[in-house]
Amino acid sequence: MRTLLLAYREVDGCDENEDVENIAKNLTIIGMVGIKDPLRDEIPHAVAQCREAGVVVRMITGDNPETAKAIAK
After folding, report:
1. Number of domains present in the structure of the chain
2. So what's the pLDDT on residue 37?
C-alpha cells in the first residue's frame, strides 16, 4: 500500500530559491490517502510457469526498497 500525506503551510509569498528541505518544514497535515494496488489473479501462475521453464523472474520498480520488498512478497 502506498500512503500519501496531504499538507499545507501558509506563506507570505513565493520564494523561488527556497530549498526542498525548507519547503517541507512546519506543515499541517490535512489528510492521508492509502492506495492499494492488488496483484492480478493470474500473476502467481504466470510466475510459476516462467520458473518451470527456467526463466528467472525479476521485478524492476521505482519504489523505495521497503515498498518493493513488500510488493515482491
Report:
1. 1
2. 73
pLDDT at 25: 83
Bridge partners of 7? 29
For the chain, the 3-state helix, strand and coil shares in percent, each to the nearest 5, are: 30, 20, 50
- Where are the extended beta strands (E) located within 1-73? 2-8, 28-35
Question: Could you give the CA distance from residue 49 to residue 68 in angstroms, rounded to a whole number?
Answer: 22
35-59: pLDDT as tens digits = 777 778 898 899 899 999 999 988 7
Could you please report the per-residue DSSP string of 24-35? TSS-EEEEEEEE
Query: Identity (one letter) of the amino acid at 38?
Result: P
Predicted TM-score (pTM) of this structure: 0.41
Q: What letter represents residue 37's amino acid? A: D
CB 6 within 8 A of CB 29: yes
Range of the domain at 48: 2-72
